[in-house]
Each structure stands twice: as structure tokens, then as C-alpha cells.
Amino acid sequence: xxxxxxxxxxxxxxxxxxxxxxxxxxxxxxxxxxxxxxxxxxxxxxxxxxxxxxxxxxxxxxxxxxxxxxxxxxxxxxxxxxxxxxxxxxxxxxxxxxxxxxxxxxxxxxxxxxxxxxxxxxxxxxxxxxxxxxxxxxxxxxxxxxxxxxxxxxx
Length: 155
What we know:
The chain has six helices and five strands; from the N terminus they run H-E-H-E-H-E-H-E-H-E-H. The protein is an alpha/beta fold. It has a domain of 95 residues: Response regulator (Rossmann fold, 3-Layer(aba) Sandwich), CATH 3.40.50. The protein has a five-stranded parallel beta sheet with strand order 2-1-3-4-5, sandwiched between helices. The longest helix is centred in the N-terminal third of the chain and has 13 residues. It is globular and about 35 Å long. The N terminus is likely disordered.
């Protein structure tokens, strides 16, 4: 008697995680590498970069769904990069997550003004980060504030 072949089981991560492209910029090599490895194990295509400048140079080519930034990077801060991403048609609608050690109420307010959707404290809980990305990809979009420059306000 021949045994029936067992059906191939699909990896639960691949079955439940939508494919997404994630860019990470952080001048802390350990953090950017660890975060990239975590997200890659969940099935995401990840591009890990050492600075906001290199992220901005590659965003149009990589076309991310999600961008994770440190705030305290040299030359261009995460705030600078977030503002640039929100102004660009290539990245205006991406999910922007700050993962930073800058965690005062003022820092969180400045993140919102720069265009970040979430502000997470280092060390970030990997489950929280993963849940935020999964929710976003499932269609649960964060409420964004829009800052109108003073010269654009009608008088």
C-alpha cells in the first residue's frame, strides 16, 4: 500500500506576511544590522543603510513601503530625511517610523512635525515594530498631521 504524500506546508511567515520593501537608516551598525535581520526573517525585502543621505539617494530606485530612521544621524538627521521623504512623490505615502534614543515629549512632537507616523524608543520591542508594519500593510493607515508653512497660510 502506497502512502499518500503529505501536502507541502507553507512557511507561516510567508503565508501571513505581505511582501513589502523596507529601508532602514541608522549610523549605529549594530542596530541597523539587527533590525534588518529581524525584518528579513519575516519575509520583507530590506535595504539597510548607514546614513540618511544614502537613503535619500536610493529611495527612488528601491521604492520602499516602509522607512525606519534613527533621529540622531550625522549630517542629515532623521527629521531632515523624513521631511525630504514627505516632499517627494516617490515616498510621500510611505510608513515612516522613528527608532531612536531621543525620547522626550519634545522629540516625539518634532517627529510628528517632520512627518513620522510612529516614534519608538530604543531598544525597540521587535514584536511592536513587526505589528506596526503588519497593520500598515493590512490597510490600517495612521492619522497624519500636515504642517502648513506660514507663507502658505491664506490671509
